Amino acid sequence: MSIDNTGPRVDRRAALAGAGVAATALTLAACSSYGGTETTPAAPEDASGQPRELAKTGDIPVGGGIITGDTVITQPTEGVYQGFSSTCTHLGCKVNEIVDGLIKCPCHKSDFRLDGTVDSGPAPRPLDNRSIRVDGDRILSS
Ligand code: FES
Fold first, then answer.
1. Owning domain of residue 47
2. Residue 130 falls within a domain, yes or no?
3. What total number of domains does the chain contain?
């Protein structure tokens, strides 16, 4: 019996490197399909050019917050409201809940505090600020 050594050869190191590239590509594809990667900021105005109402102040729990559209609104202490993009700064998934004072990203378990800073997980930086303002009992984009 003879062995044919004339065909293309792939050594073990090259095969492992190729497998790593493929695995990375699959991971990135999975992440980008989980919640998307939005880069467009919310329109600050409605169709008539007026600031967009995002919520009522009474909708935002003290020591918590809500996620409305692509905006996170928190109320860390009574009467102090903060706005953030809902796009996670790790790989762009959407944060999807606020539990026990933490804004949570479902993709790789980054948690953000109510001031947008990173509490835990792989996110490299705080959530992006989103400009909001309070007008009476309304929270508006600005
Ligand atoms: S996208 Fe990875 S933790 Fe949010």
1. 10-142
2. yes
3. 1
Query: Counting atoms of ligand 1 from 1, which one is nearest the CA of 95?
Result: 4
Distance from the alpha carbon of residue 31 to the mean position of ligand 1, in angstroms = 8
CA pair distance 53, 44, nearest whole angstrom: 9
Q: Are 32 and 107 in contact (CB under 8 A)?
A: no
What CATH number corresponds to the domain at position 33? 2.102.10.10
57, 138 in Cβ contact below 8 A? yes
**Structure token pair of residue 112:** 């953000």
Instruction: Please provide residue 45's backbone torsions phi and psi, each rounded to the nearest 5 degrees.
Output: -125, 155
Residue with tokens 């001031």: 115
pLDDT in tens, the chain (142 residues): 444 544 445 444 444 444 444 443 333 333 333 333 333 355 567 777 788 999 999 999 999 999 999 999 999 999 999 999 999 999 999 999 999 999 999 999 999 999 999 999 999 999 999 999 999 999 999 8
Pocket-testing residue among 32, 34, 103, 107, ligand 1, by greatest number of atoms within 8 A of Cβ: 107
Which residue's CA is minimally distant from atom 1 of ligand 1? 91
